[in-house]
Amino acid sequence: MTARLRALAARWTTLVPVFAVVLLVLTWGRDLPGWAVAIATLVLAGAVLAAVHHAEVVAHRVGEPFGSLVLAVAVTVIEVALIVTLMIDGGDKSATLARDTVFAAVMITVNGILGLSLLTGSLRHGTAVFNSEGTGAALATVATLATLSLVLPTFTTSKPGPEFSTVQLTFAAVSSLILYALFVATQTVGHRDYFLPIVETERGTPLRRGGARRGALHPHRHDQPRTAGSGPDRSGGAGQGVSPTIESGVDAAGLPHSVVGVIIALLVLLPETIAAVRASRRNQVQTSMNLALGSAMASIGLTIPAVALASLWLPGPLVLGLSNTHMVLLALTMVVGALTVVPGRATPLQGGVHLVLLAAYLELALNP
């Protein structure tokens, strides 16, 4: 009996996501009582932790930067599913949901995950070291995608309000896909070594290879996972079941409706946050940077095209333009991010600055 219990516990990463799918079928389209919401939340948390485990198994098998890419795409699929689920029944209140969620994802990844990783890595190892070439390219792509998709709609005049016309939306969606595909090709084929962790000497300075580039690179190493099996990320199952509850809970608390997007982004980015912090604790800060910026890029580059396609049959407008306050926060985030990335090294100060920017965004989300 004890052996069976141990075997069952070892397989929790497979059983919990399956249970989440079953729970989704049983609760789909229903108003859930409080106790059911609590159960769904616990199952969702377990499924998220299972997603982290599966992602680390995949990363262990395929190496960096492919492992980070797999996790980024997986959580973006969950994000899109949650957005579309809420937009179907949300009416006019959901017109800004895609914008709010994508912008929240950018702020959480570029300031939250990145800042927490730099803070953890630098406190544990003295200085957080990463490859400025690959990280800088990723940040530049995120800045371009965010400006094209979230800033320009505020200033266009083809449609009233911060919306794209059909032609403009199509251009933004296609451009997002092209840039994301180009970055993935660069990350995995053209310049893969730009996205691999750096080896430091005992003095704490990066080794040099042939004098051409800073940083001697080594294949990404993961701690051996407890179980050898891997599977797809199913953590979005229970999330779809509780997504209407998220919306009603925000309304009941009297919070701005944009907080729904913040909650969705926090929910789906939890696996990457855990994985990034674990990597930084192992002194693999480049992996953490790949996760943070790769997630931001996937959130924009894949969510905007998906929502643009869904808007063809979904009711109501699709508002993408940011407010003045959020544009200031986005601009400050990108400037600070560039100054963080250029040296290729970071102290706890840089991590703290990014975390303060995240705190400012969350404060303004709750009290606009």
UniProtKB/TrEMBL annotation:
Q: Name one GO cellular component term.
A: plasma membrane
* Lineage, highest ranks first: Bacteria, Bacillati, Actinomycetota, Actinomycetes, Kitasatosporales
Asked if the Swiss-Prot or TrEMBL record annotates the protein with the keyword Transmembrane helix, the reply is yes
Q: Where in the cell is it found?
A: Membrane
Transmembrane as a keyword of this entry, yes or no, is yes
UniProt-listed InterPro entries: Alkaline_pH_Ca-Antiporter, NaCa_Exmemb
Q: Name one Pfam family in it.
A: Na_Ca_ex
Could you identify this protein by its name?
A: Ionic transporter y4hA
Compositional bias segments (type: Basic residues)? 210-223
Query: What sections of the protein cross the membrane?
Result: 12-28, 35-54, 66-89, 101-123, 135-155, 167-186, 259-279, 291-314, 326-342
Which GO MF terms are attached to this record?
potassium:proton antiporter activity; sodium:proton antiporter activity
Bilayer topology = Multi-pass membrane protein
Arranged from A to Z, the UniProt key words for this protein are:
Membrane, Transmembrane, Transmembrane helix
Q: Where is the Sodium/calcium exchanger membrane region domain?
A: 35-188, 242-364
Q: Where is this region: Disordered?
A: 206-243
